[in-house]
Amino acid sequence: MLRPCTIRQHVLAQKQMDEKIKLGISACMLGENVRHDGGHKLDHYLKYTLGKFIQWVPVCPEVECGLPTPRESMQLVGDPENPRILTIKTHKDYTVQMKKWICSKVVALKHENVNGFVFKSKSPSCGMQGIKVYPSSSGISVGKGIGLFARGFMEKFTYVPTEDDCHLQVPERRENFIENVFVFYRWKKFLKEDGSIKGLTTFHANHKLLIMSHSTETVKDLGKMAAQPGGTGKKDLFDQYCKTLMTALKLKATVKKNINVLQHILGYFKRELSSWEKKELLGIIEQYREKQSPLIVPVTLLRHYAHKYDKEYLKSQYYLNPHPMEFRLRNQF
């Protein structure tokens, strides 16, 4: 039989899975035939694995701004910081049409309450980075730019987590993005359901170890914001906290940083664990350091001890349960 504290944690985890988080996505990756050649770029992981917990909001800039399928392929032309989008063969300029649509679409997505976006890489409309920009309708590319819609979205939603399908193939980037999505979702939920200074203190306390796994310096700065708001207005304080938080979470959670957090958690069991149990746990952490076992192994054992010895502070830490375990994001070596 599950203990009451374990039941509460199970209910919390189940609620986190049941409440589907809204994410925007380039529609072709859900299997929609919207690409210039009339085809798609279905991503099975995004649609069928993440799709169990994510409510996708599909977007195809080129189709939604009024272009047909199939259609002539396009490219970015001109200034990499402010390129135009033209068809490759006939050189027809769709920049004004596209930008007009983007202005209305970002407003619609704000109402959709999206908590992140997955863009199609290498697209002149959706590519997040490294998109070739040409000096004219022909010739050799002169630089790298950002797809028109991706740029418009990221400028409008500064703190919203974004990633492209190519980088999501890298396990570390995938986990970091999904972790950020869940943190951002909880932040917005906090603002909607609580939004108090006291609530900010609790929010920070529950995310402290997770933030520490990305930046030990930033977790201190955020702690000061939450504990000593001073004369800063609440809106300005919350904006600064969110900006600092989401900037910190973009930093990679390395093995070294994770080990620092794992050892920090171990310190909470100085009196409870036997010398043999401590030695076992330190050995497991060392195996993780040497890449002989994935992060999920020490985390699972520490989560077990947190419940066994009823450590309320640790049980509330999202570091030990940042996203649904079904994603198996911490199972990678």
From TrEMBL:
InterPro entries per UniProt: 2-thiour_desulf (IPR007553), DUF1722 (IPR013560), UCP037004 (IPR017087)
Pfam families, per the entry: 2-thiour_desulf, DUF1722
Domain DUF1722: 208-324
Domain of life: Bacteria
Name the record gives this protein: DUF1722 domain-containing protein
